[in-house]
UniProtKB/TrEMBL annotation:
<protein>
    <submittedName>
        <fullName>Hydrolase</fullName>
    </submittedName>
</protein>
<dbReference type="Pfam" id="PF00702">
    <property type="entry name" value="Hydrolase"/>
</dbReference>
<dbReference type="InterPro" id="IPR023214">
    <property type="entry name" value="HAD_sf"/>
</dbReference>
<dbReference type="InterPro" id="IPR006439">
    <property type="entry name" value="HAD-SF_hydro_IA"/>
</dbReference>
<dbReference type="InterPro" id="IPR036412">
    <property type="entry name" value="HAD-like_sf"/>
</dbReference>
<keyword id="KW-0378">Hydrolase</keyword>
<dbReference type="GO" id="GO:0016787">
    <property type="term" value="F:hydrolase activity"/>
</dbReference>
Length: 236
């Protein structure tokens, strides 16, 4: 089948967030807070276990007082910040200013790396005239990340949960993306790493392809099959 449009998830699909250690070290350096390397590692591990790094590991346990907020965190910018800073506060850090600083850090282009084959795949689809939209459960504007890494020119539309007040797997988010591309959902492929959230596109009639949520170094060519799936080249 030849698709006329492809929808891509953001985190874990096109881009990967930095490690918890890199995230924490950058914030400590910026804030001028001196922490011995062994303590940095321990703090980073605890933050990762708490699920405080957006795009990183899911929380091993969500505190009851954050459960409702966590379930709807991607519906608004305020809820997203409150959920993740709330999880971070489960870890006692050396300064209270670090919690919001950590959240702010994850929104910067430096905190993200595109997967190695992202530009190749997006560029190939674009040259073949296939519409491309990014559909993300997120609480902030990721467009600057795409611009900073040179991928914005390949994207025709961004459909971000916090801008619509709904989150995947709600079919309304996928419908909005298809409408922005001007395509029937049956002519659209959704590519993501979350079987529950991204799999919601199937209910609308989109085909769905999943990639593995892995570090950049461990997934050098995970997106390339999308070219063949879109009917634009051989499977590699």
């Amino acid at each position: 089948m030849t698709f006329k449009g492809v929808l891509f998830d953001f985190s874990g699909t096109l881009f990967r967030i930095e490690s918890a250690g890199s995230w924490l070290r950058a914030v400590l350096d910026e804030a001028g807070v001196a922490v011995p390397p062994d303590k940095v590692r321990r703090y980073a591990m605890r933050l990762a276990v708490a699920g405080a790094l957006p795009g990183g590991s899911s929380p091993e346990r969500v505190p009851p007082d954050l459960a409702g907020l966590w379930a709807t965190r991607d519906e608004s910018a305020g809820r997203h910040r409150a959920a993740y800073t709330g999880l971070a506060r489960q870890v006692e850090l050396p300064s209270p200013v670090l919690y919001d600083a950590l959240y702010d850090r994850h929104m910067t282009p430096d905190a993200w790396r595109p997967y190695t084959d992202a530009a190749e795949v997006l560029g190939t689809l674009r040259r073949e005239g296939i519409g491309i939209a990014v559909v993300s459960n997120i609480g902030w504007d990721l467009r600057p990340v795409f611009r900073a890494h040179g991928l914005d020119a390949f994207v025709d539309a961004y459909v971000l949960s916090y801008e619509h007040g709904i989150q995947k797997p709600d079919v309304r988010l996928f419908r909005a993306a298809c409408e922005q591309l001007g395509q029937d959902p049956h002519d659209v492929l959704m590519v993501g790493d979350d079987r529950e959230a991204d799999g919601g596109a199937a209910e609308l009639g989109c085909s769905v392809h999943f990639v593995d949520h892995l570090p950049v170094e461990e997934r050098p060519s995970g997106l390339r099959p999308v070219i063949a799936l879109a009917g634009r080249g051989p499977l590699r």
